[in-house]
Amino acid sequence: MVFEHLPEDNTGRLAPGITRREAFALVEKYNKESFHIQHAETVEAVMRYFATNLGYVGEVDFWGLVGLLHDLDFEQFPDEHCIKVREIFDDEGIDPQLKRAVVSHAYGFTQHDVKPVHQMEKVLYAADELTGLIGAAVLMRPSKSTLDLTVQSLKKKFKDKKFAAGCSREVIRKGADLLGWELDYLMEETIKALQGKERAEL
Q: Are 149 and 140 in contact, with CB atoms under 8 Å apart?
């Protein structure tokens, strides 16, 4: 399934109207803290992994852009997260379908909710919070690596409500439910995505 109203280029691939380089320049324009830039790239990698593994091969770049830009407004406008970004995207001429996908990950948290409908939107909704939990769990490991992280270990952190309390377990569970996946599967695949990213950076 592709987005009905998103134009395609002459290869038949989705044409979001913005390159990865341009998108990353926007991330750096609105984010100065390295943590937020790193998180953007982390979610980008996770989204690209899921696009490939779920069979959306022609949409990998689009899924990646959504992941890269999903928190664009958070650092400067935390109280208007996924609200201010609409204005930014309109000013930058970014495709409305990309905007819709980005703002859908704040479903249930803003006055202008957009429910995740496409598989990609559901993945973003679930994986965003989960990458934060995984990142916190990795920092506690002697290896400081995802490569030896297991689902069993992550689930222990998930059940400890005091650990990384800012990562919403409710959203992660709800995201898994939206996708029709078991929580273990969502965790396992997200860990694999981050392991792939880490290996590529070695």
A: no
pLDDT (tens digit per residue) in 150-202: 999 999 999 999 999 999 999 999 999 999 999 999 999 999 999 999 999 99
Tell me how many helices (H) and strands (E) the chain has.
9, 0
First to last CA, the chain: 34
Domain boundaries, the chain: 20-201
Residue 63 contacts residue 47 (beta carbons within 8 Å): yes
Residues 6+ apart with CB under 8 A from 200: none
> Using CA atoms, how far apart are residues 131 and 99, in angstroms rounded to an integer?
21
Q: How far apart are CA 151 and CA 186, in angstroms?
A: 10
Q: Which pLDDT value is given to residue 113? A: 78
